[in-house]
Structure formats: structure tokens, C-alpha cells
Design goal:
This protein is globular. With about 260 residues, the protein is of the alpha/beta class. It has a seven-stranded mixed β-sheet, sandwiched between helices. Helix content is about 40%, strand content about 20%. The protein has nine helices and seven strands. The protein has helices at about 10-25, 35-45, 65-75, 85-90, 130-140, 155-165, 165-175, 195-205, 225-235, and strands spanning about 50-55, 80-85, 100, 115-120, 140-150, 205-215, 250-255. Helix 1 (about 10-25) runs parallel beside helix 9.
Length: about 260
């Protein structure tokens, strides 16, 4: 994934980040990132016997700020294979020793070869999730588990992005995330609600064990007035009545 020079100076960004974290602690105290929740679920499934496949691993399977946890978890597993269709990303991955370039729709791996398959912010990019979930099922051992962390199509970040022209979306990616839009894969959101995910799982003969609706920190953290409004909405989303509108979801599926 291509990285561009930060559009604002380091000192300004650092000041804005500090301001944001003060706002978050006061408005949504104890907010747990969905990436933290995802790590906790993975840690529950990884032990010394685990044969693990991570799909869409890119440069790492967890965010940069969780690299120490990633290395600890990898060291605890029996074996980890990372797969991604971006060869440049695989080449600079420093945590996964065994890496393969390939497509989820046609995994270059034997049947029943993994106890655990994971996908962190990948499912939204699947154009034919039933066929691709069937491939995941094929490489899982009986009783094996598939854990995926992905945006909720009913969450406000996805809804807002769908309303914006491509040019504006690209500009926001550069300003807020420091990424070039050419390094962002196309999204389809064809399995990105609990209902859609359960339908896809049933058609691909996977059993849904659990779906957790989760939170993220504010996407507009670098724009304080908008970050304030976003944090107020995140606080409202803590209500169980608005659970279906939370921005991310973590699903655990298994093969019989």
C-alpha cells in the first residue's frame, strides 16, 4: 500500500493528536478500539498447535501500534502463513516469515490445512463472498475457525463515504490517513452486516458462532470540530438500541 508524505507537518499533527486523545478520554472514557477487540479474540484462538492463515496480510496483520502484540502472538502459534495479492506489500512485511501472493477466490493452499483463518479489514473488498468463503472453508480443518474484522455497512463511516464523490474521498484518504488513493482497494460491502454475513456463511456452509458490533476511534481525529461531533455520536452508539449502527464488526465462524 503506497504511503505519501504527510500533508501536515509533524508538529501540527502531533498537537492535533494530543488534543484528540484528551477529547476522547473526556467524551468517551474507556473507549476500546475494534483493533484491540480483534486482537483479544485472535489471542483466544492462537496457541502452540495453531496452523494459521492470515488473508490480506499486507505489510502486517495488526496496525503498527500493535506490532509488539503481533510478534508475540505469531511466536505463540505453530505456523503462520500470510497471503496478499499485493506483492510490494508482502515484500516489506517484517513480522510474517511465510508469505504468499495470491487471491482469496483461489487460494494456492491444500485442503484442510489450517485451524485458524483471519482477515483484518478485508471482507469489504470481496466481490464474490460466497465463493471466497467457500475457499476459506476448504482450507479450514473440521472444527477450524475463521475470524474477520470489517466495517459495518450501516456504520456512519461507510454511509458518509458512499455519499462523497471519488475525488473528495481520495482527498480525505490523503489528508486523514496519509495514504495515496491508488493504494486503496475497491470496496463492495457484500457481507458487511450481520444479516448479510449470516446469509453468505450459510451459503458457503460455515457456521456463525458470534458477531460483535464494535467501535473505532474518530475517523476525523485530525479535524477537532468534526472529531468532537463524531465522538458524541460514538458515545451515543454505546446504547444497545443503536448497536446495529456501530461502525465495525468482528465475526467468528467455524467449519463443521
Amino acid at each position: 500500500m503506497a504511503v505519501v508524505q504527510q500533508p501536515m507537518t509533524g508538529s501540527i499533527r502531533a498537537w492535533l493528536e494530543k488534543l484528540y486523545w484528551v477529547m476522547e478520554r473526556r467524551i468517551v472514557p474507556g473507549l476500546k478500539s475494534s483493533q484491540d477487540a480483534y486482537h483479544d479474540i485472535l489471542a483466544h484462538h492462537v496457541d502452540a498447535s495453531t496452523r494459521w492463515l492470515d488473508l490480506g496480510c499486507g505489510t502486517s496483520l495488526l496496525p503498527a501500534w500493535r506490532q509488539d502484540y503481533e510478534r508475540q502472538m505469531i511466536a505463540r502459534s505453530r505456523v503462520l502463513v500470510g497471503l496478499d495479492r499485493s506483492l510490494p506489500s508482502l515484500k516489506i512485511n517484517r513480522t510474517i516469515a511465510l508469505r504468499a501472493c495470491g487471491d482469496i477466490g483461489k487460494l494456492p493452499l491444500p485442503d484442510r490445512s489450517f485451524d485458524l483463518v483471519t482477515a483484518n479489514m478485508v471482507i469489504e473488498h470481496l466481490d464474490d463472498p460466497v465463493a471466497q468463503f467457500q475457499e476459506i472453508r476448504r482450507v479450514l480443518t473440521p472444527g477450524g475457525v475463521f475470524v474477520c474484522h470489517t466495517p459495518n455497512v450501516r456504520g456512519y463511516p461507510v454511509l458518509a463515504a458512499q455519499l462523497l464523490p471519488n475525488v473528495i474521498r481520495g482527498l480525505l484518504i490523503r489528508v486523514l490517513e496519509g495514504r495515496h488513493p491508488q493504494g486503496v482497494f475497491k470496496t463492495y460491502y457484500r457481507a458487511n452486516s450481520p444479516t448479510a454475513l449470516r446469509r453468505v456463511a450459510a451459503q458457503s456452509r460455515l457456521k456463525v458462532q458470534d458477531v460483535q458490533m464494535t467501535f473505532t476511534s474518530a475517523a476525523l481525529a485530525m479535524v477537532p470540530p468534526l472529531a468532537l461531533l463524531e465522538l458524541l455520536w460514538i458515545r451515543a452508539l454505546r446504547s444497545s438500541r443503536l448497536e446495529a449502527l456501530r461502525p465495525t464488526m468482528i465475526a467468528t465462524l467455524s467449519r463443521d
